[in-house]
Description:
Chain A is mostly helical.
Amino acid sequence: MVDLALLALIALASVAIGSRVITKHFWLTVPIGFLAVVVLRILSVVIATAANRLPVKIDGLDAWVFVALLVAFALPGVKNLRSQLWALSASFGVVALGELGSRVLGFFTRPHGDALWILTLAEYVSGGGAPWVMGTSMSLKRGFSLILLLGLGEGENRIDAFMPIIFGLLAMVTIGFTLLLLRDFSRRVTIASIAVVAAVVFTASMPWVAVFYVNGHTLVALGITVSVAAMLVSHEVFAHPRGQLIAVCLGLAVVTMTRPEGALLSLVVVAIFASRHDTKPTEVLVSIAAVFASFLTWMYTVSSYVLTGRMTWLVPLAMVIVLAAVWALYRWVPKVIDRIFALTPVILFAVFAGLEVVFFSALKKGDRSLVTNLLLGSGGWGFIFWGFLIIAAVSFFVKREMIYGTLLRVLVSLSLASFLAKMVDGGQFGSPTLGRVGWDDSLNRMWIHFMGLFVVAAIVGVAQILTNDFVGLKLRRSIGASESVDSK
Amino acid sequence: MIAEPVKNVHKIRFSKRLMAVVLVALLIVSANLLLTRRSNPFQRLDRYESAAELINGKNWNWGLAFLVRSTQGKVSLTNLGDLQNDGIFIPAELAEVNHIVVDSSSPPLELSADDSVALRAISGNSVAISKTRCLNRFHKYCDVRIMSNKSINADAKVFVGVHLSQNIFGLVEKQLLESVIGAVS
């Protein structure tokens, strides 16, 4: 009963907090509010960990601090609730469906070692365990924020319903963003494009696995999709002058604190959008600072092995130097830094290709596994990626929507960053690797991170194939005045 | 910068394109359904199960600490040795979660073949089998037998790591082990 009341409070707070950032699109309001809830949860553990060093100890302090933070941040948004009926319905609807699937029908994660690890630590956290236990390399690989979220249960229990709730929010932002991008297409095109992509996606098993699978991938997907959607929606729709930046930073903070590769993915997202001419240098600096601060918060709270010895101060110092360097480049040679950011996909590809050449024999098995998982159906993705490749290939022959080109650039860059993250992970123990055959290979699971954006890009791609003129092979031609989406 | 909204509504120009798109989609859907191996994307539980309940009986690679806890309670483990060289490995967080004290400062005791046989021959031994990382990361996993005997010690508190054979280790209750090989320091 306490768990249910807490979920209801989270549903309400998501709308109240989200409506302080954006009121116009409920499909962004609720997920942004939920991402804020995740950040507040982490903050509550940070505060409780510091407080527990005092002589007086209070049982369940982190949960009480969380509720207090939730109420404090939601209260100013309560006045918006009357105009947020769609958002309220969506928020409570997602929670109700999550509870129905998880608690009433008893659906639960596909068995997997990482999931068991996360469930174990979540119970440990809900039972009042200290977070320093999660500072080892084995635990850091399993992430942080999701463990704390699941560990909000009463007593030593977990709240498993968070997994379908996160998936529901991901579905919400994916559908809302898609419909916004397709608003200039006829209803027939919209229905045909969505139906075709939905049929292809939901006949594969991984999108279904992601609904209940206990791991940080779906939460990362939510953070990335919200960040990218918030950056592409016109800043005028935000209720707060800094609303767009707040939404982006919330998404990137959650991505950074949910998976070990999260910081890299977040920085790649920042770099891609930094190259847009309507992005201000202060926004770029604040976004990078948010990623760094989130990473350090995680590492210090769990007493990570990464920050021991000299690294305790070297890592933060390196981050300050990077920020200062970016600021200095913006100050004196803005064109150079714009160019560097614009070349993000090229730089990532060059590093990836270089590593492929240097570690050719070590990566041979991983390359084969990658092809087997993604293109031959062994990774649980069916033949989805064939569809995506066909859409992308045909799109080079039609007038492309500007937004499609942007999404493609984001997806290619994030995919390359995932390859590099996987290589680094494997490289810790010898030669770099690109994984093995099977749905549970970590690189194969990382594609869940981009599921929302893949679906949006695929639907827009199909819509433009159905409607736009064939122009022959044009790699650069796009239509649309700007990458921003006006939502008047 | 805000984009100018596109005034003209995009419509399907050629029904042939729609046909082609639907055809390709049907091909992929058919391949998804017919050519890939299907397994349940999630499981169904009749009731809430704790992590320990989920782990016990699943032969999880990291389930050793849970099995020790569920069969022996809150105990101490000594002589686990070094993962990189000669020992077995229980992650610190899983030991902490299960309230197990782990001492890895000494390597597992090497049991002679005779001692090994003598240990197994004692009547009333209870044995639970799990596995964990061992002998360096490339070897991956070794079987571990958790052995105790209530008639020798009803209140088991300390278990000693022993090397039983090439890839098999034991966590043997201290008094039970001493009944075979004499005093253990």
